[in-house]
Design a protein that fits this description.
Number of strands: 0
Strand content: under 5%
Organism: Neobacillus bataviensis LMG 21833
GO molecular function: transmembrane transporter activity
CATH architecture of the largest domain: Up-down Bundle
Number of domains: 2
Helix content: over 70%
Shape: globular
Keywords: Cell membrane, Membrane, Transmembrane, Transmembrane helix, Transport
CATH topology of the largest domain: Growth Hormone, Chain: A
Main location: membrane
Membrane topology: Multi-pass membrane protein
Structural class: mainly alpha
Distance between the termini: 9 Å
Length: about 425
């Protein structure tokens, strides 16, 4: 009974909520560490290998492979373990691994930098679903979407500032200081999480094994219409993004006939759109159902991708890119809010662990075929197929478009 009171009791404003503030502060430190690490490792590897494509691609493997291998396992353990303790220890262990990498870097081989990305990426598969669980436990239902809006805005800001910060730190101080800053950022994140309230006693998990709990997680997702449709929507979006992500540079050089350096303007406009979109979403978060945010965001993105594929005018392309960025927070907020609102607390980790690999896996599949599709057909065809996949994602989620949001009274009455 204590669980229900904690979970649904109304609180003061969101920005007075201790859990929310601790997680956001932790997220700020993590973003600084991640972006400094990512760009330091990228630029360092390029320097050491003279831009070897295989070595550079291994950085992405170190970042994305843990999503496939550890996401579901991490989510299952997140449902078993105390969330505060899990998050704090993941940050501490990430920091320790970073400092071990630093020591090895000084006295050993430079190739160890790949582990700086790999180990913290693995640990994040245990930490991230625990953060989602804390939101579910300590925020009232009407605060969840606003909290997700703020959280996504933090990510959007770092999409713009992160590359600048990471590049500046590496070029100014080198790899050793960059890795040190990353480790300190993870420790500061752990310190911020220290302000979270003490973990409450865990419910008994009974005699069920890890495998049984993983199976029950899959059964839970398949048994909930909203989550099943969300999984299919995830796949469609991942497939669509995978087609266009590796080909953005050709949009600049072939469609627009501009030097490759102009890609930075597309990325900057997209990032600015994401920041504005996140801020607008914060204002209207309480008034729009998450599934409507998701449908609207997917639809506009589909149209934007189609326009970018056809456009040979830099102004039109930049406008389409801006709207794509503007709608991205709607998609992310809609997805995360739906997961939190439609999933019982005991299954948050496993649901997150099932849906995340669907998106990442779909994206990697189409990234593998993007170049082949472009060479055999055209860049325009590739972008239009991506746009169609986004529209398919919209059609998949439409059955729950008009689903009413639960009120506080309904949530309390269902307990």
């Amino acid at each position: 009974m204590e669980k229900n009171v904690t979970q649904t009791a109304p609180s003061r404003g969101l920005f007075h909520n201790r859990v929310f503030l601790a997680i956001i502060m932790s997220g700020l430190f993590l973003q600084v560490g991640i972006w400094v690490r990512n760009f330091a490792v990228l630029l360092f590897v390029m320097d050491q290998t003279n831009g070897d494509a295989f070595a550079v691609s291994m950085i992405s493997v170190a970042e994305f492979a843990p999503i496939f291998i550890f996401s579901f396992i991490g989510g299952t353990f997140a449902d078993r373990w105390a969330p505060k303790k899990t998050m704090v220890w993941c940050d501490i262990l990430s920091a320790v691994s970073i400092f071990v990498v630093l020591i090895t870097l000084v006295f050993g081989t430079w190739k160890v930098v790949f582990f700086a990305t790999l180990i913290s990426a693995i640990l994040s598969q245990f930490s991230q679903p625990s953060g989602m669980k804390l939101f579910k436990m300590h925020l009232s239902p009407d605060q969840v979407q606003q909290a997700m809006s703020v959280y996504q805005t933090v990510f959007a800001v770092f999409m713009v500032l992160g590359p600048v910060i990471g590049t500046f730190v590496f070029q100014s101080f080198g790899i050793d200081i960059s890795i040190t800053i990353t480790g300190l950022a993870f420790l500061l994140s752990a310190a911020a999480l220290g302000f979270l309230p003490k973990d409450r006693p865990l419910e008994e998990v009974g005699e069920s094994t890890l495998l049984q709990e993983m199976k029950s997680g899959i059964k839970y997702v398949l048994g909930k219409k909203e989550l099943s449709l969300l999984g299919l929507c995830f796949m469609a979006a991942g497939l669509g993004i995978g087609f266009i992500n590796p080909l953005s540079i050709f949009l600049v050089t072939e469609q627009l006939g501009l030097p490759k350096e102009n890609l930075q303007w597309l990325l900057m406009v997209n990032g600015v759109g994401m920041i504005i979109g996140g801020a607008v979403a914060m204002i209207f978060a309480k008034n729009v159902a998450p599934q409507r945010l998701l449908v609207f965001g997917m639809l506009v993105n589909g149209i934007g991708i189609a326009v970018m594929g056809w456009s040979t005018n830099i102004t039109i392309t930049l406008i389409a890119e801006f709207f794509n960025g503007l709608m991205m927070p709607c998609i992310q907020i809609g997805i995360n809010t739906l997961i939190l609102k439609k999933t019982e607390e005991a299954f948050i980790g496993r649901v997150n662990g099932i849906l995340s690999p669907l998106f990442a896996g779909s994206m990697v599949i189409t990234m593998s075929f993007a170049g082949v599709l472009k060479e055999n057909f055209s860049l325009v065809t590739t972008f239009e197929i991506s746009a169609i996949l986004f529209i398919i994602g919209v059609l998949v989620i439409l059955p729950i478009y008009n689903q009413k949001q639960q009120t506080k009274a309904e949530v309390l009455g269902s307990k």
